[in-house]
Amino acid sequence: MATIKRLRLWQIIVIIGILILGFGGGTYVINAQLSGSQAAEGLTENEQLVAVTRGDLINQVQTGGTLTLPHRESIRLGAGSIVKDVLVEEGQAVIEGQALFTLDDATVAQHDMEIAKARIALRDAQDALANLLPDAQADLAAAEDDITDGERILGDLDKEHRDKIDTAQDAVDEQQELYRDIFAAWLGVTLEEHESSMPPNELLTRWGANLKELLIETVGADSVRGVYSRGAPADDPTTRWSETIVYGIVNFYPGQIVATCESTDAHPLNGHCLQKGFDDAWDALTTARDNLDSAVTARDTVIKDAQTKLDAAREERDRMLLAVRDASEGNEGYARQLKEAELATAQVALQDALQQREEATVRAPIDGIVAVLNAVPGEELDVESRIAVEIIDTSTVELSGQVDETDVLRISYGDPAEITLDAMPRQVFTGSISSISSAAQLQQGIAVFTVLVRIDVPPDVDLREGMNANARMAVEEEFNVLLVPVQSIYGTFQEPILRVMSDGETTSRPVTLGGNDGFWVVIDSGASEGEEVIMHVSEADEFGVFGGGPGFQRQTTRTVRVVN
Questions:
Q1: DSSP assignments along 416-475, one per residue
Q2: What CATH number should be reported for the domain whose range is 72-125+345-390?
Q3: Is there a contact between 559 and 4 (Cβ–Cβ < 8 Å)?
Q4: In sequence order, which ranges of 132-273 are alpha helices (DSSP H)?
Q5: Which among 55, 190, 209, 417 could bridge 473 via Cys, Cβ 3.0 to 4.6 Å?
Q6: Which residues contact 545 (CB under 8 A, 6 or more apart)?
């Protein structure tokens, strides 16, 4: 059931006309119904009979304010823009798309250049996206070729250097054998394995062999032979060399034999220098070993370099596989996303450039009136924030008013409204609530909320911003319902009753109540049209104007202000 309402004092002035027509008319009806009934038996002087009638009940919230034109479009140009031709005047009515003014030729040429650049960038972005997959596939094929070449080169280098190492090793083995042979040939010494890696001087020192003592240096062979003229000496087991071999060489070698040479570059003429022979064999062995080490080092270096290049080619191949996958359509690869984003950016840039070129002729964005016009032919707009032109849409008009914190709970977005203007008191406009503020403002200690009411403006009506207007917003409407005065209700809030008079008898009858407008209350059930009920005619009590009869027990003292 609707909450019972109390009228504000200031509203009395507003609704005097309504009370005169509505309440007065209702009173007339009631008085007409009561004529001849006030003297009915059983009624006190504060009671009257009134008939249950059928009619409409409408509750409204009212607000007043001024008209606003909220829909307006402002056009600002960049600082330095120069106007060429102005095609409208301030206050002129324009339609959407109508040319307002044009910019100078230099500005137009600049826009054309930006369009050309944007088209080139767009073409490049399109090509980059189109070639993304083919380029990635070509790079992958190249990486595969690099791997094949790298594996072939690695194999060739390995074989080449293995051959070189084998050759160097053969040379070492040969010189090793020659080094052994020279000691066996001249001293009769068979070198042990570890002795093959020792230089001659170190070996002779370890053996206690003095070449000069072993040989008798003389100019003639006869003197040498004379030493052993008594026959070959027996081999001394305590020495490493063979006395028999040395004896044979000294006595039977056809040339001169010396232990050491004055010159290390050559043997004596038609002779042999033992120390030089040993040293030359050792130097040849050392050189062969150095060559072998160099061959191994060279092989390791080139193989490592080739392997590094092969590994890099394999890594590149793996990257290209990912690139091909990322470039393929249907995959969420970053490469394709990047190229698609670059293409979209280029498309937007071209559209912006084309739009700016189109805006070289400034056109009206909406239908309306030219409210502001700062464009002057040949004049440069000095600041970017300055409005060049502003168009106001006069077809969209709103009433900006305020309601208090109680009434704001009774209205909703889209609720219908009736609007009257001080300047046009005889005409009633329709409209609806287009906005209700969510935050309150305090006015003289009262919380109020701003309400905007969109007005349906007829085509032949010209409304101006700032006009004073009032709006009545219907919050409750019940049509063709049973009505009785609120002061004919008795009983309790939960169990209201009507005192029905029939054939001189009074009967208390339970009823179901609907809404009320402060004077009339709707009977949903429990009464019939035309029945006479007893109405209490004393002053309204604290239950608002819905005071009820003396026996009506009030359940709340909350009051809600309402405009009828």
A1: EEEEEETTEEEEEEEEEEEEE-SS-EEETTEEEEEEEEEE---TT----TT-EEEEEEEE
A2: 2.40.50.100
A3: yes
A4: 132-187, 200-207, 211-214, 221-227, 243-252
A5: 417
A6: 4, 5, 6, 7, 486, 518, 519
564 residues of the chain, pLDDT tens digit each: 333 333 343 343 334 444 433 444 444 344 444 444 444 556 888 889 999 999 988 878 889 999 999 998 888 876 667 888 888 988 899 999 898 888 877 777 777 888 898 899 988 888 877 787 788 889 889 999 999 999 999 999 999 999 999 999 999 999 999 999 999 999 999 999 999 999 999 999 999 988 888 775 333 333 334 344 456 778 888 999 988 888 888 888 888 888 887 766 667 777 889 999 999 999 999 999 999 999 999 999 999 999 999 999 999 999 888 888 877 776 666 777 787 788 889 999 989 888 777 777 888 999 989 988 888 887 776 655 578 889 998 888 999 999 998 888 888 899 999 999 999 989 999 999 999 999 999 988 899 999 999 999 998 888 888 999 999 987 677 899 999 999 999 998 889 999 999 888 899 999 999 888 778 999 999 999 999 999 988 654 434 334 455 444 333 322 232 333
Fold for 66-71+392-474, please state it: Elongation Factor Tu (Ef-tu); domain 3 (2.40.30)
Alpha carbon of 519 to those of 24, 60, 172: distances in Å? 12, 14, 132
Pick among 3.30.230.10, 3.20.20.220, 2.40.420.20, 1.10.3210.10: CATH of 5-61+476-561: 2.40.420.20
Judge contact between 421 and 469, C-beta under 8 A. Answer: yes
DSSP string of 335-359, one letter each residue: HHHHHHHHHHHHHHHHHHHHHHHHT
Count helices and strands in the chain by DSSP H and E runs: 11, 25
Q: How many residues can be counted in the chain?
A: 564
Cα–Cα distance for residue pair 430/450, rounded to 1 Å: 19
Cβ atoms 493, 554 nearer than 8 A: yes
Q: Is the pTM of this model over 0.85?
A: no
